[in-house]
Amino acid sequence: MKQLRNTVIRAGLETLYFSGAHHLLRPIFAGVGTIFMLHHVRPRRDIPFQPNHHLEVTPEFLRMTLAHVRASGIDIVPVDEMHRRLTERDFSRRFACFTFDDGYRDNRDFALPVMREYDAPLTVYAASDFAEGTGRLWWVALERVIGATDRIDAAIGGTDVSIDTGTLEGKQAAFDRIHDLLRGLPDDRDVAREMSGLCARYGIDEAAISRELCLSWDELKFFADDPLVTIGAHTISHCNLAKQSESAAHQEMTESRARIEAALQRPVLHLAYPYGDRGAAGPREFALAAAAGFRTAVTTRPGMIFPENAAHLTALPRISLNGNYQNARILPVLTSGAATAMWNGFRRVNAG
Question: If you average pLDDT over residues 285-308, what whole number do you get?
Answer without folding.
Answer: 97
